[in-house]
Amino acid sequence: MVSLDNQKDPAHTNNLFMTAEELREYADKIDTARASAAFKDMRTAEDARKLLMEKMSKRIEVTDQMRSNLLSRIKAAAVEGKNELMVLQFPVELCTDQGRAINNNEPDWPETLTGVPRQAYEVWRDKLKPAEYRLTAMIVEWPHGMPGDVGLFLGWGKPKAL
């Protein structure tokens, strides 16, 4: 057994220990790496959001496959006993007022929609509203206490009582 009393620097015995200063430097490096990774993740998320906004700002071709997928989702929700389904989630930046009218439940909120959300509203208005489906909108994400994403909800049957 080796006595630590005979060592010049007991903290470095067999490289099993580190000094308090070395531990602080190590912890600082870990914190810096975490911050760097978080920043990279934030940039990746920002880039993805910009790409999503770019795609959703332009009208799309509604295909038979899209209609079929929506019908399947509606049927599955109905089988589960639900009477509404979020059919679209999008950034508030696709509203001309950044979601203010939706957040305040103003009756003219659909007029603030642009791009794909506007197109979804028009499909509801022209095809689904006559079949007695409801469409509601609400802010569904609040990053840093500010409106982030809007959800469009398609409803059928009796609305849920509050």
Q: Can you characterise this structure?
A:
The protein is of the alpha+beta class and 162 residues long. Residues 1-7 have low confidence and may be disordered. Strands 1-3-2 form a three-stranded antiparallel β-sheet. A hairpin with a 7-residue loop joins strand 2 and strand 3. Helices cover 44% and strands 14% of the residues. It has helices at 20-56, 64-79, 100-103, 115-128, and strands at 84-91, 134-141, 149-155.
* Global mean pLDDT: 85
Strand order of the largest sheet: 1-3-2
Shape: elongated
Helix vs. strand class: alpha+beta
Oligomer: single chain
* Total of helices: 4
> What is the CA–CA distance across the termini?
74 Å
Order of helices and strands: HHEHHEE
Percent helix among the residues? 40-55%
Give me the Rg, rounded.
27 Å
| Low-pLDDT segments, ≥5 res | 1-7
Percentage of β-strand residues: 5-15%
What is the strand tally?
3
Main sheet makeup: 3 strands, antiparallel
